[in-house]
Design goal:
CATH architecture of chain B: 3-Layer(aba) Sandwich
Distance between the termini of chain A: 14 Å
Helix content of chain A: 25-40%
Shape of chain A: globular
Number of strands of chain A: 12
Strand order of the largest sheet of chain B: 2-1-3-4-14-13-12-9
Order of helices and strands of chain B: EHEHEHHEHEEEEEEEEEEH
CATH superfamily of chain A: Aldolase class I
Number of helices of chain A: 11
CATH superfamily of chain B: Class I glutamine amidotransferase (GATase) domain
Number of helices of chain B: 6
Strand content of chain B: 25-35%
Number of domains of chain A: 1
Oligomer: heterodimer
Radius of gyration of chain B: 15 Å
CATH topology of chain B: Rossmann fold
Strand order of the largest sheet of chain A: 1-4-5-6-7-10-11-12
Radius of gyration of chain A: 17 Å
CATH class of chain B: Alpha Beta
Largest sheet of chain B: 8 strands, mixed
CATH class of chain A: Alpha Beta
Distance between the termini of chain B: 10 Å
Structural class of chain A: alpha/beta
């Protein structure tokens, strides 16, 4: 049986892992290679590296570290942040990344997803979606890497999820902005709505604060994986403990 | 020397790095002479079957691969290419295994591609499985699959049972990515490297 994936997201700035508070005051969390290796050794299923400023600055991620990570670790990883051209994506994939994730550039020009899928295959192309619950609506946001530049897009989350899948995205990472950083659990209803709308894997992001949040997500939805950052980086939820907890809760995980 | 056939896919660097971690020298090539003179051959591949077969045809490697007598390991799409036919683009493949590849149908609780860590169910003894526990997890990314046959060394299951490791004579294949499957994948690659050429 396919296991539920547990994914650690590392924010990268200038080749270092950083942690921001509300996208500001970045604190250095350590060396990207050492942290990646530690997570791989502890049994994380996948890593996502996100250049937190690239997209809104209009520059591509500094990719020298991609190659070093690909040489060092033996689990899959995805690179996100400011990938705007086929050449940007090609450089990152050729350096050994398994997937690239696009977000704001796909909202600017949706056909970019089709071009990426046609060139590299759908399995390499992840669509990142930042979604905010506004009343009874789910709204896609753009340029969320920098709060001074963040804007509301004209897209509804469920229809945008369908659209990116139709265009060729092989996976969706849905970041539920209301829950992000609050550590009160994933937005189960929103994730279930997007899960039901598409056939590709959907990864939950935003809200993990405790062990039970992961179990709730996997019990109450068919979501394929859970992404988190701060609870892993802070040591609040050690990876081996989370895997053991989920296994005892009879959720299929890799231990 | 291990020849990695340049099938044009995007995961080739990670295959090469995995061999580096195991201390094996490799060369990325689409040259038939280099491939014929290598000790072992890896056929990686991601992307679509028709594109990969077209590329092998253009580089004149179809017969070269079919005629190899040294150990050959196909990875992911590279494994599927060893079969007879793929439903993906109605594509004739290399025909070293007689069965055909078909696609997963999306269903509730079964998103496609099949992406993530799934278990190996051992179907027969084989040197590739040395040191690998039955039920070990490996990393898959694919939308098409080969059926379980008498050549299946290990199966896996995603709604349908499918071939995860296949072997006949010198031809072997892994549907999953050993280069991205942690210590289990590294052991399977090591087993391949340690086979007599």
């Amino acid at each position: 049986m396919l296991t539920k994936r547990i994914i650690a997201c590392l924010d990268v700035k200038d080749g270092r892992v950083v942690k921001g508070v509300q996208f500001r005051n970045h604190v250095d969390m350590g060396d990207i290679l050492e942290l990646s290796q530690r997570y791989a050794d502890e049994g994380v299923d996948e890593l996502v590296f996100y250049d937190i400023t690239a997209s809104s600055d209009g520059r591509v991620v500094d990719k020298s570290w991609v190659n070093q990570i690909a040489r060092r670790i033996n689990i899959p990883f995805c690179v996100a942040g400011g990938i705007r051209t086929i050449a940007d994506a090609k450089a990152i994939l050729n350096d050994g990344a398994d997937k690239i994730s696009v977000n704001s550039p796909a909202l600017e020009r949706p056909e970019f997803i089709s071009e990426l899928a046609a060139t590299f295959g759908t399995q390499c192309v992840v669509a990142g979606i930042d979604s905010r619950r506004e009343g009874d609506k789910l709204q896609v946001y753009q340029y969320t890497g920098d709060e001074t530049k963040t804007i509301k897009s004209k897209r509804d989350t469920v229809s945008w999820a369908r659209e990116v899948t139709r265009l060729g995205a092989g996976e969706i990472v849905l970041n539920c902005m209301n829950n992000d950083g609050v550590r009160q659990g994933y937005d189960i209803a929103q994730l279930a709505a997007v899960r039901a709308a598409v056939t590709v894997p959907v990864i939950a992001s935003g809200g993990a604060g405790d062990y039970a949040h992961f179990a709730d997500l996997f019990r109450q939805t068919d979501i394929d994986g859970a992404l988190a950052a701060s609870v892993f980086h802070s040591g609040k939820i050690p990876m081996p403990d989370l895997k053991a907890y989920l296994k005892s809760a009879e959720i299929e995980v890799r231990v | 020397m291990i020849a990695i056939i340049d099938s044009g896919g995007a995961n080739i660097a990670s295959v090469q790095f995995a061999l580096e971690r195991l201390g094996a020298a490799s060369v990325l090539t689409d040259d038939a002479t280099t491939i014929r003179s290598a000790d072992k051959v890896l056929l990686p591949g991601v992307g679509a079957a028709p594109v990969a077969m077209q590329r092998l045809a253009q580089t004149g490697l179809v017969d070269c691969i079919r005629d190899l007598t040294k150990p050959v390991l196909g990875i992911c799409l590279g494994m599927q290419l060893l079969f007879a036919h793929s439903a993906e683009g109605d594509t004739p493949l290399l025909g070293l295994f007689s069965s055909d590849c078909s696609g997963f149908t999306p269903a509730s609780g079964r998103s496609v591609p099949h992406m993530g860590w799934n278990r190996l169910a051992c179907r027969q003894d084989h040197p590739l499985m040395t040191g690998i526990d039955d039920g070990a997890h490996v990393y898959f990314v694919h939308s098409y699959f080969a059926p379980v046959t008498s050549d299946t060394v290990a199966a896996s299951s995603y709604g349908d049972d499918f071939t995860a490791i296949v072997a006949k004579n010198n031809f072997m294949g892994c549907q999953f990515h050993p280069e991205r499957s942690g210590p289990v994948g590294a052991q399977i690659l090591r087993n391949f490297l340690e086979m007599p050429s």
